[in-house]
Amino acid sequence: MTTGKPITDVNSITRNRIDAVAAHLALTGSGGGDTSPCVASATTACFQSGRFEAKVTWTTASGPGSANVMFFGGQRASTEETAFFQFFSPTNFEMGLKILNACIPVFNNKYWIFISGLTDQGWLVRIRDTSTGQVQTYNNTLGTLSTTFRDQSSFSCN
Asked: What pLDDT, on a 0 to 100 scale, did the predictor assign at position 3?
């Protein structure tokens, strides 16, 4: 995968030149992205039998952090279709995320994404399709009140 003569970067480290196309194919698996399984954790929610992985990060004037999946009454607040996230306090709901299976022709044969935030903090939602490796991100700018929105076209059912 190396081509040409080695180069020295700004930190005086000598590296081989990497062909950009070869690097892309190596990193993404011949055009697809990461297809590893979704593993639920404090900061990761899995949807639709593990088909989708969602992670949320937030930003305040003081800096960034990772959102946690909430717990209500000792129960994790996530299902096959929905998850609730908190940013700063385990009792303070900040965002809800829903991924619906609309895999029938009348609904465009797509998965539908709904995101609703109750905050004016900055946030980034990263959803990965573990079947194809496709990643979509959705964000809210710090200082802007979040609104509910939907994406009914990004993720194919195939």
From this structure: 40
